[in-house]
From TrEMBL:
InterPro entries: HotDog_dom_sf, Thioestr_dom. This is Thioesterase. It holds the Pfam family 4HBT. It comes from the Bacteria. Coiled coil: none annotated. GO terms for molecular function: thiolester hydrolase activity. Residues 20-90 form the Thioesterase domain. Gene3D superfamilies: Hotdog Thioesterase.
Length: 110
């Protein structure tokens, strides 16, 4: 799944450059990770964020931004997810997120 964040003037954080606000990029990547977990793992409830670490690699220009999540590992209670966001080329990411999420255990139905 590739998530898309269309550009809009309201997401500019630094009007001098102009650059997309870091909080917008962080929230976009976090939502991408949660959506990928819901789609892939078929959770009954939305996973909860335990912690995230974000690396801002370059300024987000006033363009459409894309993100893709890769689930590294899903255990009984915790999932580890890596997300990369890019604009022009996927090989040149503008930000990356590593996160741990609390997933609900799968219930065994009789």
């Amino acid at each position: 799944m590739t998530a898309i964040l269309p550009f809009g003037r309201h997401i500019i954080g630094n009007p001098v450059l102009p650059a997309i606000h870091g909080g917008v990029l962080g929230a976009f990547m976090e939502m991408t990770a949660l959506a990928q977990l819901l789609l892939t793992e078929g959770q009954e409830r939305q996973p909860r964020v335990i912690d995230v670490s974000i690396e801002y690699l370059r300024s987000g220009r006033p363009l459409t931004t894309f993100a893709r999540a890769e689930i590294k590992k899903v255990g009984r209670r915790i999932a580890n997810v890596h997300v990369e966001a890019w604009q022009d080329r996927r090989a040149a990411p503008i930000a990356a997120l590593r996160g741990h999420f609390l997933v609900s255990p799968t219930e065994v139905k009789p």
